[in-house]
Amino acid sequence: MITLHHLEQSRSLRILWALEELGVEYQVKYYKRLPNFSAPPELKAVHPLGKAPVLTDGDLVIAESAVILDYLQATYDTENKFKPQNPKDLMQYNYWMHYAEGSLMPLLVFNLVLTNVPKHVPFIIKPIAKKIAEGIKGGFIKPRLSDHIPFLENYVNEHDYFAGDFSFADIQMSFPIVALQERIGGKYPKMKAYAERIQQRPAFQKAKAKSDF
Question: Pairing relation of β-strands 54-57 and 2-7?
Fold first, then answer.
């Protein structure tokens, strides 16, 4: 039996979505975040790093979104509906599967961490901490995001999906695209339209309903 170890407000929504797209039988074990927003220690009983998503299938314990998606596609997508087979689209598929966590998400996570820095320092140095955090964001993160955002906007303007037809690459890219939209306030209409379109898929709607605690 497939079991998804699902942490609230996490990237494990991707895996829920993929499971719904595949239409396979699975179960979900839910974990609530601690007051400091970290994962509960129970997750370490499943995987030593105690992070989500984690998928178990029989004796297999699989972590990392892209690895889990690759496993589910190779094992359960018998008609290859969610991974392109022609070389051109397959190259794009592999690129976006790695780009999501390798290039884009580190910037978004770093930005989030810096935003929260002033909340976790003594009151007397909060103004200094805020200036330092804003300086790093302005000097390091924003210039890099200013390259990524038009790059993504142009791509989804020219392509309905990230790798030919809808594929697991779209599921992998969904998390950073939606997170980015929340930060830029929907200022980029093509990315906004793409995010809205993929979230209208019935499988996404079912996964979202199951992901809510």
Answer: antiparallel
